[in-house]
Write a structure and sequence with these properties.
Layout (H helix, E strand, L loop, with lengths): L1 E4 L7 E4 L14 H4 L8 E5 L4 H17 L2 E8 L17 H19 L6 E7 L3
Parallel strand pairs: 3-4, 4-5
Antiparallel strand pairs: 1-2
Length: 130
């Protein structure tokens, strides 16, 4: 076991230990061996901003959800306020409701395109700052 000096308590050592083999992160190909009753995932949260990276993350989550028999929660955050340095006096081209409806429709279309019908999907759109 390693000992490090605690920088908040000068001169008092603190113990650091490596995680046990059962606590290590599993690769996607090893999920069956790692997924015991304590490691069972029920929902997999996938943040979506409709970029190539978020679609890649969704494609990674699909086989994981299949192996673990889990739900996929697609979450997108839309900003309804002004895009120009939080200026409230600048009118937006679209209303907040329109942007939320468009994002929800985009999530549903993406779910139909990328995810099989056997995996339950929960599309959610939140309003705030992405």
């Amino acid at each position: 076991m390693k000992m490090k000096l605690n920088k908040y308590r000068a001169g008092v050592p603190r113990q650091t230990k490596r995680p046990a083999k059962s606590e290590q992160v599993c690769e996607l190909s090893q999920i069956d061996a790692c997924a015991g009753p304590a490691n069972k995932l029920k929902k997999i949260l996938v943040p979506i901003d409709f970029s190539a990276e978020s679609i890649k993350a969704l494609r990674y989550a699909v086989p994981l959800a299949e192996k673990l028999d889990a739900f996929i929660c697609l979450v997108s955050v839309v900003e309804t306020g002004s895009l120009l340095n939080n200026l409230k006096n600048v009118p937006m081209g679209f209303s907040g409701d329109t942007r939320v409806e468009d994002a929800k429709a985009g999530l549903v279309i993406m779910a139909q395109k990328e995810i099989g019908k056997l995996i339950p999907v929960i599309p959610q759109v939140r309003v705030g700052k992405p």
